[in-house]
Design brief:
Keywords: ATP-binding, Nucleotide-binding. The chain is 33% helix and 25% strand. The chain is of the alpha/beta class. It starts with a strand and ends with a strand. It binds adenosine-5'-triphosphate.
Length: 224
């Protein structure tokens, strides 16, 4: 059976303004293999919803269900292994590039797949990067790509991508799009990808969610 995420009647208020929710009553569903672009005006709550779907924030009301089981019955770590969030502000753990690449296997006590890590780094234009380098010394765009590789090494079923190419140049952006397309084709890995680039949305996704005026409008692209 295909993995399925559902969210029902999600409401989120912000601290200091309980009377006026950021959004209320948002519902939707996705197979974890779906490729979804998530667009909409700034400040409507796209990142907040994505973080709620990753169990990194809590809604004020509403239910999240993965494979028929409500979120409260899940171990949050197991949930996040299936649905992994990649932030717009890449966060490097202290230590070297290799320490960062090994983080997923260290956390989940699985063997480190050095060959896959090398392949992913190379596919994002980082074949020459010295893995002994202090990760804090990487450029913003390099951190973003290492952060994506670190997450892909977890082999999640779906990626929750928060404007991950906003700080990348065209070449790196194309490489990220190509890599995620090949992961989708080879392993069925899906994503919900927040982007402000509507051309990118049309290139990468089969489905479209637009969050505006407190509602999600759903659409489909002709050529996924
Ligand atoms: N923890 C918080 N405390 C206070 N305000 C918050 C918090 N989290 C989000 N907000 C506010 O909620 C609004 C929505 O933020 P969010 O980042 O989810 O929107 P977005 O649609 O992803 O925006 P953008 O497209 O500009 O990235 C913003 O005004 C933000 O400042």
């Amino acid at each position: 059976m295909e993995s399925m995420l559902q969210f029902n009647q999600i409401t989120r208020t912000l601290p200091g303004n309980p009377a006026r929710p950021l959004f209320s009553g948002l519902s939707g569903e996705a197979r974890l293999s779906d490729t979804i672009s998530f667009t909409g005006p700034s400040g409507t709550g796209k990142s907040t919803l994505l973080r709620i779907l990753a169990l990194l924030e809590s809604p004020d009301e509403g239910r999240l269900i993965l494979n028929g089981r409500p979120a409260r019955e899940w171990d949050a770590r197991q949930w996040r292994m299936k649905l992994s969030y990649v932030s717009q502000q890449p966060f490097m753990l202290s230590g070297t590039v290799e320490d960062n690449l090994r983080a997923a296997s260290a956390l989940h006590r699985t063997p480190f797949d050095r060959e896959l890590a090398s392949r992913l780094m190379a596919s994002l234009g980082m074949a020459e990067t010295d893995w002994r380098k202090n990760a804090q010394r990487l450029s913003g765009g390099e951190k973003q790509r290492v952060s994506l590789v670190r997450t892909l090494l977890l082999r999640p079923e779906m990626l929750l991508l928060d404007e991950i190419t906003a700080s990348l140049d065209d070449t790196s952006t194309e490489a990220v799009e190509r890599l995620l397309r090949s992961f989708h084709e080879a392993e069925g890995t899906g994503f919900i990808w927040i982007t402000h680039d509507l051309e990118q949305a049309g290139r990468v996704a089969g489905r479209s969610w637009v969050l505006a005026e407190g509602r999600i409008t759903e659409g489909e692209y002709a050529c996924p």
